[in-house]
Amino acid sequence: MIGGGQGAFIGGIHRIAAALDGMYELTAGAFSSDAEKSRATGVLLGLAPDRVYSSFQELIAQEKARPAAERVQVIAIVTPNYLHFEPAKLALENGFHVILDKPMTFSLAEAKQLEQVAAASGRLLCLTHTYTGYPMVKEARQLVAAATLGTVRKVYVEYPQGWLSNFEEGSDNKQAAWRTDPARSGVAGAMGDIGTHAFNLLEYVTGLQVVKLCADINTVVGGRRLDDDGAVLLKLSNGSSAVLMASQIAAGEENNVKIRVYGEKGGLEWQQVDANTLRVNWLDKPSEIRRAGTGYVSSFARHNTRTPAGHPEGYLEAFANLYRNFALCVQAQEAGTLPPPEALDYPGVAEGVRGMAFIENVIASGKSTEKWTDFSV
Amino acid sequence: MIGGGQGAFIGGIHRIAAALDGMYELTAGAFSSDAEKSRATGVLLGLAPDRVYSSFQELIAQEKARPAAERVQVIAIVTPNYLHFEPAKLALENGFHVILDKPMTFSLAEAKQLEQVAAASGRLLCLTHTYTGYPMVKEARQLVAAATLGTVRKVYVEYPQGWLSNFEEGSDNKQAAWRTDPARSGVAGAMGDIGTHAFNLLEYVTGLQVVKLCADINTVVGGRRLDDDGAVLLKLSNGSSAVLMASQIAAGEENNVKIRVYGEKGGLEWQQVDANTLRVNWLDKPSEIRRAGTGYVSSFARHNTRTPAGHPEGYLEAFANLYRNFALCVQAQEAGTLPPPEALDYPGVAEGVRGMAFIENVIASGKSTEKWTDFSV
Amino acid sequence: MIGGGQGAFIGGIHRIAAALDGMYELTAGAFSSDAEKSRATGVLLGLAPDRVYSSFQELIAQEKARPAAERVQVIAIVTPNYLHFEPAKLALENGFHVILDKPMTFSLAEAKQLEQVAAASGRLLCLTHTYTGYPMVKEARQLVAAATLGTVRKVYVEYPQGWLSNFEEGSDNKQAAWRTDPARSGVAGAMGDIGTHAFNLLEYVTGLQVVKLCADINTVVGGRRLDDDGAVLLKLSNGSSAVLMASQIAAGEENNVKIRVYGEKGGLEWQQVDANTLRVNWLDKPSEIRRAGTGYVSSFARHNTRTPAGHPEGYLEAFANLYRNFALCVQAQEAGTLPPPEALDYPGVAEGVRGMAFIENVIASGKSTEKWTDFSV
Amino acid sequence: MIGGGQGAFIGGIHRIAAALDGMYELTAGAFSSDAEKSRATGVLLGLAPDRVYSSFQELIAQEKARPAAERVQVIAIVTPNYLHFEPAKLALENGFHVILDKPMTFSLAEAKQLEQVAAASGRLLCLTHTYTGYPMVKEARQLVAAATLGTVRKVYVEYPQGWLSNFEEGSDNKQAAWRTDPARSGVAGAMGDIGTHAFNLLEYVTGLQVVKLCADINTVVGGRRLDDDGAVLLKLSNGSSAVLMASQIAAGEENNVKIRVYGEKGGLEWQQVDANTLRVNWLDKPSEIRRAGTGYVSSFARHNTRTPAGHPEGYLEAFANLYRNFALCVQAQEAGTLPPPEALDYPGVAEGVRGMAFIENVIASGKSTEKWTDFSV
User: Fold this and answer.
1) Distance from B297 to chain C by nearest Cα, in Å?
2) Domains of chain A
């Protein structure tokens, strides 16, 4: 693991996600660029001292120097955005598989370069767009793909948060500090942090691509250096339209990412607060409540649950689904076999490049006086 | 009553709303321009035959000719949009108070003219934007007005319907036929029919005005002559921003009009499907569920309920609240007294003019390649 | 109307329910045994002074003395329980149809006597068990009757309220005073006031009868003279079992009456707080959300709604459904025709007798040390 | 681990719960009494072959024979009920801490004996009553303990399931087979499997004890040998009353265990389907929605979450909370220190004995013709 020292949030989540199914063992880490901090985290996690490093370069070099059977197979990179590209590139080039926190890189240019590196390396990369790991999000995608709703006509996707309603970066909030800092986060704040999740969810569930957008991007809290709120009108590849809303100043909201997709015959609705439920509404018959863990859901939903219906699974399990599916694919690659299609269904390099394109396009549109901006990659 | 013959939808609703509190008695009507149909409706409603007319002109002339104590006091106009202006004008000019279905007129020009007529007449006009009649919508407005949430920063308002997902106007659907006909509905379809409700709800709850907008207006169903879907980015008078979504092709949706308002300290959420509940979320304490009919709500909410908490009141009661409040204001005017502030809180001419301005501005923005259109009245 | 003077709650509700569909006109009343109070209420309601009476005997005698076309047809009795039997009996015996608030009488003996009076009179009697007026309760009954769920195996029905959590009868609460007074309410408090509603709902929805019961009846608030809480184990006529819970000291609860019925193949759930929804769960397929006002519901549900799906109807509309259905049956009887089956579906004498039997049996069981008490009528 | 071979359900859950926080490492197991099956499971889980045993006796003997630093510290027993007592007793007597699936034993007599063994051993025992591991259940207990609601007056607790609606034990359903077999499950079916969970939840949240009960116990499905449904009236140690409902033939229900507690000033409600929410209703002010992961919850709730508010945690996390808290207590004991009170809050021997007493008392009451049965231990 690279990053994820004390005080970090997402590193701990990655460790739980990796541990949950017993398919990963954490054996090495460069948890901080401060050698002492990295060492302390290693002690806390019970790692062998000689596998705790003070830089990602050192981790990659030393692990590569170990016999194949004793080195790490997969490197998880859980650093802030500006520290994604270099370690991911180096890891891939040295033969390691990579799990990378989103968004993929600091800029679209980096993302496209990383795409080439990954392709050349023959190694696998998983980008942790957690929400697509939920079983009922997968069910939604399958329903749309099977044209159960008919042609998609309208999509609403939203990610409202309230935690940046105050000037948190002015206090001792490490999470707020880097996310609102252009030097560490990139050109976008809210749009990069959660707008990309909404964007990814939209493209994942619908199987469509955004082709044009028109954005209203705002920085609401005084003194803040990046956007903390935005709404976007979108045109999709089949000619339909969509709305994307993401805000970090929606005071009182937690993380209720939600998507609604309307087709010719009906619509579906999923939201994280009730993650194990997918509601499907029809033009002329009763609505359906589909539930995770039941016998009637698709193989993609079933593959991504661990408990019978009614025992709620949540965010950590969705995260763990990415880890598990990636592990199955890595194992298959190493074994020279084909993983099941359900396992292949994890977010990777292609999603990462489109996410970075979204960030750059949406910020450009926010600044533009033209109504529509073409979505360029 | 003018309009509301057999086959009409909203006329029946108006009659229930008027009857519910026993403050109105239906005594005269021109229910259809077809004399026979008007007569038949009169029979069905038990009206005296000599009070059933075959045109609004006849109704107004004949009723005016009756002794003051025996003529109608208030005329409800429940015709399609293109038949709002003339009867409303004539009624006001002849000394009758008017209850008018929304949107106020066929065009903004008519609306502004009617505004002058109403002012000159000294008579009162109520425009039936039903949703502001709900007690918990009134509670929301009071909370925002009292700055309980701090300054408003973001608003989401939406009105998704699915009933025009097919080409209903091609079949025998009278409601669909006139609403999708430019000659009877005006320049807008969905934006006029339900977009205006969402717009009115936004301005009512926040006490703010829309100053700019950027609209994506769509006609999704083939052959349709007016918009059936749209989404709008908005700038509000205090510098904040909003999103408005209205669709009649959101397949499977009923009429779940919903508003969310976020301020500095918290946010509130109301939706018609759970109309007796107002949820208030805070940055740093438990969310509140405020309920209609309880002892702790504002006088505005209390004034607009009839039953103790837990006995749901709905759409007809919200509609009846407009009728009752208007009756109280008419009675007060006739008595030369002041109505209570809670009764004065009904939508009228000013809201009607802004609603028509919304329709024209939003359609213009939809056609524009410029990003932002100033909201002009 | 008999009863329903100022300060009364249910009288006002009856008046709204009667007015809502324009099928009743309130023309006479004995609103209080205090002549002055009765007169004052009559003025407030705009009644002719000579139709406002100071006793039910006077009302019945005087109205009967009027020409048939000018007298009241239906008498609504909205007094406390101890004043149900005498006026109902007198009204029926004198040829008036009766609408009577629940429970039917003060005692089971009275109820059985009234049953005979009603049968002999040839007049109709409607007992206002409001909850069976909800369209989705009717839908539930139809689903069970059609064996959609298979044989019924288990029922849970509950009516939790919190409004008697304090010793309200010690203060100026007129509603609490008579409901907790054995001389006016009868042998039961909560069990009579709301337990009967739950009991009626159970027998209505399932089409089954209670045959045995085992009750835990409690008076929780100090100084109270009747029960304010109870729970009952029940055996039903098909051999299945049920649980009934009713409480007036469930602090913080409003009036969320709720029923769940489980059959061999699935279960259904309805609750007043979401009255326009009926949820049906299945053993092996997605749950269904059935909604009032849609095209797919049964004729019984459809007959009892006034607005398209998504415009919530509530308690007053459910109450009005009883009034409307009763009016249709009275009209049919007068016309010598048959009312539609949907109109015949209102609670009457039979339900009233069983309700009174429930009250006496449940109180007896509460006092018994025997486990099971046979349900005797 | 003892038990938990292939085909078992709860064994896998225990392994995830143990892995989630990285505080346990699975190193040894007797997964089946069939040596070959045990071995196969060991291979699947990546255990060293010499740590996979074919009986619990062998596991305990061999592990004890290892040097202290190399033997297992905690033994998880995840076998059917009839195989709880012997291995738990042996493990405790040989110095191992024990995690035991519920209910604690096959009979109350065994439970009381195990209580003595545990006390004498000085070792710790955790009984996996999962639902008390949820953070908002802990919040509920804290609120009641702090008398925030005033004295408890009424409790409703329920656990409806539908999975045994058919004669599953007649087909190849291993889970159904042992749970409906008196020789493996004990005197109770549903009451032992899920009734004990409801009972434990009631006593945990309220801090009260059941002192009397009156049960209606049913076997609904033909051919079944143990109860599959029941409802119980209860008297609690402070004089208040309660209702407990548990069913496995509530067709269409998943696992929505739910508890409602009413005090003098307000009531609270928690249910597994919305596990991260605790609703608190008040007599005279807005209801509160308390959410897991927020800053305002008690230290007990906070201690048992891993993610910020809005990222749902579920059943596996609740299970993992038991494991984590137990690990903290084991570590503290080994270190000779005191664990934090939040960690001590896990279900143990005392809860196990009461659970077994519930099973025997409730079945006895079900057979009795007396109304009330004293709760005897």
Assistant:
1) 15
2) 10-123 (3.40.50.720), 134-302+348-367 (3.30.360.10)
